[in-house]
Amino acid sequence: MTKDISVGAGAGLVAALLFGVLLKATTLAILLYLLAPLPILIVGLGWSHRAALAAVVAGALALALFVSPPLGLAFAAYLAVPAWWLAYLALLGRPGAEDAIEWYPTGRLLAWVAATAALAFVAIAVIASPDYDTFRSQLSAMSRRVVQVQVQRGRIPAPAQTENKADSAGTAAPQPSDEAPDPETKSEPNDLAGEVADALATVAPGLAGQGLTVLFTFYLWAAARIVQISGRLLRPWPDLPSTMMPRTALLVFAAALALAMLPGYAGVLGIALIGAFSAAFALQGLAAFHDRSRGRPGRFALLAGLYVLLFLTQGVAMLALILFGIADTALDRRRPRARGGA
Description:
12 helices; two-stranded antiparallel sheet; 342 residues
């Protein structure tokens, strides 16, 4: 146990270093920052969840003491604690039939990845801006900058310029008319770019939840592969195509839709959960496609076509995968049934 803690502390310092280099704001720093959760997941899957917890404490304390306490707290809430939690769940097991261990199902693990991603985003948002109005204004400012770039590239129409001042040639400004304005010809108070910016600020937590879910899933897979290659993986490699979340994931998704209607950070959590579970359902839809294509002729061509379609259509194919994953969970037809059941 002492060895596990020492190994975990070392991994936590490495993770803290990778996280801290983000302050350099260079391309290399961003790439190294993206690797920060891997050391914690590796020691969690290869040694024990206690080693991963020691990594969380060591990394957070190092950043808090040598850089700043808020950075240490952000490291713990955004990356370190989620990595420890997912490693802990991945190694859960209980005695089954014939003394075989029943490991934590990958479907439940995927659902927890989505929930953890949403909670991690809300945690870092609260740490950065405890006041919701400040958080919203910052999000709106970022969204306006993104939309401004799209306007400059010509992807979004520029706002209409309406001026009532005299032009440079000395033309007199139009005088106000006594006639009532025609409601059908009256210009809209908000331009398209402003509306897109407001919409982007609203759905930004969902997009962040989607991205974090995909990243956490990749981190968990990559860390497990590394540990498996080293021969230290404590559980057998699961059958990933058979991954299917429980139906309770649909209830969480429905609750998130209702939660998104609330004001403040409660609504942010709801939107983040919608995005996170959308990504999880898309990943399950992808797994179901792999599972259902087993043994079929031309399977490689089918899978290659699917990935090419995902690359070319992006959002449209992703929506189809999300719906496929939701239907797969709701119908529950891939899960093996117990013999002799009613």
